[in-house]
Write a structure and sequence with these properties.
about 260 residues, two-stranded antiparallel ribbon, 8 helices, globular
């Protein structure tokens, strides 16, 4: 009995903490905290549904009226810990806020299922950082970041408002957002069936202490999200092509301007 207990103690106290449970035993698979930068991604619901396959039945609740959280993703880190479960009780106090700011927009996926997947795939990798070392704290930190990076207000103050007809240049978006999100970020668009470039996402690169400026090549979209997209996924908005900022349509989320 002493040997297994010693093994567990070594794994828990070693400098390269790992987490992968099989048959209640810890096995070393990959460093638990081998990342330097973390991506905070905000998504615009008015364009999100346009990029999805129709069969997924995108749904935007009436109370969604602003940019929503897509995720908080440690860069270049796959799933770290399927052995660290999350329960509805972990998010009970946060649910009213998180339902508005980090909702699923798919009829086929419940809010909690979406949040659970985010925790397992990304939150468990972030949990080695103080302030994110539990499901509750990970989601609390993400909500705080959403409050800090108020890109709705930044765009509105710059006169950039959702419209089916008006377009904006990349420089307009950059000038509005750079003062609050720094210079290490990516403004993403997607191309609709008519070839229009639609503003859909902003990715903000942060250090592990949540300060701006961490510089790494942007990671690809998480694979579990990419499977839901058409051929045209999110890509850096072109600097020489007009960009549409479509309004949110609750009745026709796939075709808000048609």
């Amino acid at each position: 009995m002493a040997a297994p207990l010693l093994l567990v103690a070594i794994l828990l106290s070693g400098p390269a903490l790992t987490c992968q449970c099989t048959n209640d035993l810890f096995q070393i698979e990959k460093p638990f905290c081998a990342w330097d930068c973390i991506t905070f991604a905000l998504m615009w619901p008015g364009a999100f549904c346009v990029g999805l396959k129709k069969s997924l039945e995108c749904n935007i609740p009436q109370y969604i009226q602003s940019w929503t959280i897509h995720g908080l993703w440690p860069m270049y880190q796959g799933t770290c810990c399927r052995c660290w479960p999350i329960f509805p009780s972990d998010l009970e106090e946060l649910e009213p806020e998180i339902s508005h700011l980090w909702p699923t927009l798919l009829k086929t996926t419940s809010n909690f299922t979406f949040w659970k997947n985010e925790w397992i795939k990304h939150g468990s990798c972030a949990a080695c950082v103080e302030g994110m070392n539990s499901p509750t704290r990970y989601f609390q930190r993400t909500l705080k970041l959403r409050g800090h990076f108020d890109i709705d207000r930044a765009l509105m103050d710059a006169g950039i408002k959702p419209s089916c007809n008006k377009t904006y240049q990349f420089e307009d978006l950059h000038s509005a957002l750079a003062p609050i999100i720094g210079d290490k970020y990516e403004i993403q668009c997607l191309k609709d069936d008519e070839g229009r470039e639609l503003l859909i996402q902003v990715k903000i690169s942060l250090f592990r202490n949540f300060t701006l400026g961490c510089h790494k090549t942007p990671q690809a979209e998480p694979t579990d999200a990419r499977t839901a997209w058409k051929a045209s996924e999110g890509h850096p908005c072109p600097k020489d092509t007009p960009v549409f900022y479509f309004p949110i349509s609750y009745e026709h989320p796939h075709d808000p301007c048609d």
